[in-house]
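Friendly challenge for the regulars: who can give me the structure tokens for this chain first? No prize, just bragging rights.
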Amino acid sequence: MPRATDVFISYKAEDRGRIQPLVQALEADGYTVWWDQHIETGDAWRQTIERQLDAAKCVVVAWSKRSVGPEGGFVRDEASRAQQRGVYVPITIDNVRVPLGFGESQATSLRGWRGDRTDERYQAVLSAVRRIAGAGSPKGSAPGSSSLFSRRAALAGAAVAVAAAGFGGWALLKPGSASGSDSIAVLPFDNMSGDPAQGYFADGMAGEIRNTLTRIGGLKVAGSISSEAVRNDDARTAAGKLGVTNILTGNVRQTASTIRVTAELIDGSTGLAKWSESYDRAPGDVIRIQTDIAQNVARALAVALSAGVKEALSAGETSNAAAQQLVYQARAISYQWTLPAYKRSLQLLDQAIALDPNYARAHAIKSFVTVNLASFARTPADLDKGRAEALRYARTALSIAPDLPIARSALAYAYENNLQLEEALREHSIALSLARGDPDVIRNYGWTRSNILGTRGDELRFVDQALALDPLNSASHLAHVDVLFTYRRYAEAVSYSLKLKRESPELFTFPDVLARSYLMLGRTTEAALAFAQVEDADERDVGEALLAARIGKRDVALGKLAAVRQRRGDMASYQFGQIYAQAGDKDRAFAALNRALEIRIPWLAGLNTNPFIDPLRSDSRYATLSAAIGFPS
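First reply, four minutes later:
Bragging rights claimed.
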């Protein structure tokens, strides 16, 4: 019998993306959680699941449209065993009726919930788990457990994994600009294999087709996070939410000897199929299938493919299906934004690269993950090591595939975190020219320019183009509000944030930006309430220190600063500079910022646009500091 896990989560593999916020929330509340992401390649998965199910102290069963349907037999079996043991906690994530025999316990609805641990619905689930499994051991914010890099830096390499199928967020900036006969969303393919571990393979296939389509000029492609968010909707509903006129959907069934892929292109306005195809091939042909689907979709949409474009479709990708699956698993795990997740993600990427050393995308994603892992560094030496490795991985990707957009974006991200700002802007521009339809690339371009350069007129336009393409991705909304903040349009930032929070609360993941906007407007009571909602202890303490300094409570501000210093030491020097600046202590502010420069803290990329640094700008020492950082002219 394995060591008892606190919580086992039973769910349909196709619902994995919607279960992840629950896993993260329970882990944040101190519980060990087992779900099928823990199945290793080669595991006897049925036996592994059975052992974990019998050992778990508590079993949370997620009832959805899929798990209550004909294919939900495994979930019902697991729920039955949990009932027999008296450890059954039911939840619903769709508007469904719990199957007969499983409704004696009241199921808590988490429909539309995306990770807010203060939500009363999650609190009800947490209460049930505590009753059965006992109290958890909250992780808190031990030294080295959190990152003090900017939210912009943490998200530049990939979209954050918090998204929802709610109706409010997508309508805020009417995504009609992505519509037209040349617009499409690729929904995650259904895993029909019966093996939950194959879910990554099915998602990876859809993801690669999406990546391919974004490289076809003139074709607008909805972002991955938004496409994931509507995976359970019918084609017409999904098209309406995403503002596209075409939907590509499909399913995958894989055995040891055969892979069967069915793909269908659907008119989003009528729900009628424009093209469909089924493939029965050997597993080694999976990459060829993906390219064939992308080319057939382009033909069905009457999008011309030149010989050069056809050649570019496979540049930097892999012919090894196992390597591709490992990369998509690594990418999904990295979205947990935790130190263990980044380490696990790197292990999987190394396995992929061992299978195919010329898989440029794997090297590029490894660069992103390595930079994010470096954000947890506790010493300048560890930070430098991580940044140097990230640059090396990005350059390796580009040496293999110079025109791969994600590789250019990875190099730009690594440059920015190394404070090579002119090089970062150059690489973002090249990435944009190579993949004008990729919302991540477009968002990164506008967001980075806003951070480094401030108001130049086009940053918000690019960020909002990405929002139109990826409207159910919380990163799209964060970027919009963050650029408004940089533009000093604080009232608009507050208004947009409150509307999003009211209409699509699952997409509102940035109380810190809202709090800082309130603070700059002088609305200190509302700022205090918003800062209290920030979960990360360091980020919350820095915000509350800025608030205290602005209202003249110097002792409170310095007390908060001391708490952060105890946890983070000199790695938080940039934040100390802001707090001292707001407290009117210019000497200490410059001392802290100069220490940040010695370490080359990535936050310094936003020095010229940060309003909390404003009290220092008239001092002659500021010009010296800014010049030393090396901002582009």
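Residues 173-314 form a domain with the Rossmann fold fold (CATH 3.40.50.10070). The longest strand covers residues 246-254. Your move, everyone else.
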